[in-house]
Amino acid sequence: MRLTFTIQRFNPEVDETPYAEEFRLDVGRGMTVLDALIRLKNECDGSLSLRYSCRSAICGSCAMEINGSEKLACRTSLRKEFERHGTITVAPLKNLPIIKDLVVDMAPFWTKILDVHPWLVTSSRAIEEHAPTPVTVPTHRPPQFHNVDACIMCGACVAACTVHAVSKQFAGPAALAKVDRFLADPRESSFSKRARLSALQDDHGLWDCTRCNFCVQVCPKDVKPMEAIVRLRRASIEQGLTNMGGARHIIGFSQLIEREGRLNEALMPLKVVGFDLSRLLHVLPLGLRMLLKGKVPNPLGHRLPGLNQVRAIFRRVRRMPSA
To answer: What does DSSP say about strands 63-66 and 103-104: parallel, antiparallel, or unpaired?
Structure first.
């Protein structure tokens, strides 16, 4: 079968902007996208640049955008892609600088990983000096990493991240998942766990994730970075780190549900902005529009049926032991 491949090309030495170039190639059953790209480079255009190594979905080097989705080229079937999309379009990962053609600069990705100190920290001095400390692995209680330790650092999640697309300072799914991996490690000191969470409370940290779920969809190793971020948020609240709007939203939401059995949309914005006068004035017009649209519950209205059952759920959750 002869297929047409549309590949994004870009050589910064001669091109002002990326452009698409088409290639025709005879392909066989069982070929992957990486197999085809290697043949295109060897048989059609030796200047085509791409990155690959293990060819076994282990190293993550061949991550790229295939038919609009971030995938590993070495494990992506040509036949399945063509049957699903009717075309084969290949481009480099988004949200990372392009070096040439399908090769991106991973330096910003690695910088974010290094920023979260991707090693065990057993003392406050170690995290300040960026020095790993020898530790003993406990055998009586194996850590539960939720498969986060399966990450191969391919960068697909960062390329798919909608927040990273508009805010390059965002820590990103891979780095935040790495933090969750160390928080789950019993060898990590309590001081270090709180320090990790505290460092991610400001802008561009763990509260910036919009939970679009794209990082989960594209991860080739089923790491589920968004779920790791949710665990980080839960741990932050348990540690009393509740100054950010995201934390106040979660706490306020729970309080309203427990108190009224439903979401009071008039009080929810007040729970988020707190006692900040400037922000209160900012949401006041929103409150007036909600009142006119009938979105403000009547404070003198009847109590919702089943409220006692809702409150019983909250009481039971509080009695449950922490995971």
So the answer is: unpaired
Q: In this predicted model, what pLDDT tens digit does every residue of 236-252 receive, in sequence order?
A: 999 999 989 899 999 99
Looking at CATH, the fold of the domain delimited by 107-238 is given as Fumarate Reductase Iron-sulfur Protein; Chain B, domain 2 (1.10.1060)
Residue-wise pLDDT tens digits, 109-165: 999 999 999 998 876 555 555 555 666 666 666 678 899 999 999 999 999 999 999
Q: Which helix (H) or strand (E) holds 208?
A: none
Contact 224, 147 (CB under 8 A): yes
pLDDT of the residue at 134:
63
Cα separation, 22 vs 90, in Å, equals 10
Residue 126 CA to residue 53 CA, distance in Å, equals: 34
Quick one: which of 261, 279, 262 has its CA closest to 270? Answer: 279
Q: Is 110 helix (H, G, I), strand (E, B) or coil?
A: helix
Q: For the chain, give every domain's residue range.
A: 2-104, 107-238, 245-319
Give how far the C-alpha of residue 9 lies from the chain's centroid of Cα atoms, to the nearest Å.
28
* CATH architecture of the domain formed by 2-104: Roll (3.10)
pTM for this structure? 0.87
Q: How far apart are CA 92 and CA 32, in angstroms?
A: 17
| CA nearest neighbour of 81 among 94, 96, 68 | 68
Q: Is the pLDDT of residue 44 over 70?
A: yes
pLDDT at residue 141 in the model: 65
